[in-house]
């Protein structure tokens, strides 16, 4: 398969390695200095760029009939607009805040635990995410997806950075060294704490998941999720 990379930073380079190991060709490496993009030979585009660049990259691909896998976080104010353009152009799209298999299992575990905690008012939910110091957005996209999973299955109404409140999930974002991504969810009562945690050891899991999603989407039309790709039910 011929892949166009949008964003050739830490993730773009890791995706290149994994894609080549799996027999794919990288036909474009689009980054901030790129002046001209040839879409003709691209079977699929993988966007891991920046919050400011993602929407433009994604919609350019749809306009040129190229399906998109996007892992960029921090651009979701424009998510519904991107879906409209994808549908208009009869293209295909997967966005995931986290492409790793482990985190996608963790998303399911989080939803199951939230269902069990619903109505147990003696417990207060909170979340902590830790990432490297170069990360531009906070909280992480993964933390937002986890908070949405709790909100969908409990009486919590919203998440906020740090802020407390009965119906608010407080998220603490820490930026330390080279940490690839650690997410912890706590339910704390006066007598005990229930904690679930996912720790990424490196970026390979994110990159492999994105390449698997690109293999899966080829030839399809529509908007999908990693749940579809991984058949997690
Ligand atoms: N979904 C996931 O599984 C997952 C995993 C890791 C990182 N991410 C997200 O992916 C994004 C990239 O992460 P990273 O660690 O590779 O960051 P990075 O800073 O190392 O790389 C981003 C690259 O995008 C480039 N860029 C800037 N403007 C651009 C434009 N207009 N077009 C194309 N490229 C442009 C930058 O020059 C840089 O090379 C971030 O939003 C991060 O949160 C998601
Ligand atoms: O390194 C990053 O940046 C990461 N971003 C994603 C997020 O915001 O959740 C996934 C984990 C790594």
Automatic annotation (TrEMBL):
Protein name according to UniProt: 4-hydroxy-tetrahydrodipicolinate reductase
One function term, GO molecular function aspect: oxidoreductase activity, acting on CH or CH2 groups, NAD or NADP as acceptor
Annotated NAD(+) binding sites: 33, 71-73, 96-99
Broadest EC class assigned to this enzyme: oxidoreductase
Location relative to the cell: Cytoplasm
Keyword entries, A-Z: Amino-acid biosynthesis, Cytoplasm, Diaminopimelate biosynthesis, Lysine biosynthesis, NAD, NADP, Oxidoreductase
Domain of life: Bacteria
Principal location: cytoplasm
A Pfam entry, by short name: DapB_N
Pathway(s) served: Amino-acid biosynthesis; L-lysine biosynthesis via DAP pathway; (S)-tetrahydrodipicolinate from L-aspartate: step 4/4
GO biological process, one term: diaminopimelate biosynthetic process
Keyword Secreted: no
Coiled-coil intervals, chain numbering: none
Catalysed reaction equations from the record: (S)-2,3,4,5-tetrahydrodipicolinate + NADP(+) + H2O = (2S,4S)-4-hydroxy-2,3,4,5-tetrahydrodipicolinate + NADPH + H(+); (S)-2,3,4,5-tetrahydrodipicolinate + NAD(+) + H2O = (2S,4S)-4-hydroxy-2,3,4,5-tetrahydrodipicolinate + NADH + H(+)
Organism expressing this protein natively: Flagellimonas flava
